[in-house]
Amino acid sequence: MHLGHLRAAEEVREGAGLDEIRFVPAAVPVHKESDDIAPAVDRLRMVELAIADCPAFRTWDIELRRRGPSYSIDTIRALRDEVGPETRIAFIMGRDAFDDFHTWKDPAVILGLCDLVIITRPPWPDTLSPDALRVAMPEPFDYDSASGTIRHASGRAVSLQRITALDISATAIRHLVSAGRSIRFLVPPAVASYIDAHQLYRRHGAAAGGRGHSR
């Protein structure tokens, strides 16, 4: 959980007029290598620490309490059941994840349950085009060229939001930790302290050369 995630979430919350944003750590991430991430309980705790001072942000451990792989469709269905049919749900994802959206489980069903907010940074385009959504679906789409918004037959929208370009990568942060280098100013201090205290992302036998990460 790094500062790029937090700034993006804040800009989307403000830009999309959202009451709250939920961060949902995946128990078994379907699209990530399991040996390259920390245990679920540690990832949950790092999110909690990162957003502790943000009243509009909250963690949601629903996927950690669910057995098997973590599919977004199951989480979205659970949230829809919780908030009812009228409350707006916006599922936020990066532009790179959106490129693979057609490979997800039940993408058409997801589009019938919530809006999609696609976050993008330079040099990616300001708008979406009709062919950006590569999902074979019988339902028609309407494209608003003025706003660059794709609207699903259910009324749900797929929109693009530009965010501040912070070139911070979770993968790069893990590599820095593994090499014993500082991650100060890349992650919240409480997260850096947690990584240090729990020896996360370190090569076996590697020295903890960056013990001053956040203090």
Largest sheet: 5 strands, mixed
Can you tell me the CATH topology? Rossmann fold
Given as residue ranges, the uncertain stretches (5+ residues, pLDDT < 50) are 205-215
Structural Rg: 18 Å
Please give the CATH architecture: 3-Layer(aba) Sandwich
Q: What class, by secondary structure content?
A: alpha/beta
The order of strands across the largest sheet is 3-4-7-6-5
Count, helices = 7
- End-to-end Cα distance, whole Å, is 17 Å
By DSSP, the count of extended strands is: 7
Instruction: Give the proportion of residues in helices.
Output: 25-40%
Tell me the fraction of residues in β-strands, as a range.
Answer: 5-15%
The CATH superfamily is known as HUPs
How many domains make up the 3D coordinates?
A: 1
**Tell me, what's the shape?**
globular
* Mean pLDDT value: 84
CATH class division: Alpha Beta
- Return the string of H and E elements: HEHEHEHHEEEEHH
Would you kindly provide a written description of the structure presented here, covering whatever features stand out?
Helix 2 runs antiparallel to helix 7 and helix 3 runs parallel beside helix 5. The chain has helices spanning 3-16, 40-50, 72-83, 95-99, 107-113, 170-178, 189-197; strands at residues 21-23, 57-59, 90-94, 115-120, 141-144, 149-152, 157-162. The chain has one domain: HUPs (Rossmann fold). It is 31% helix and 14% strand.
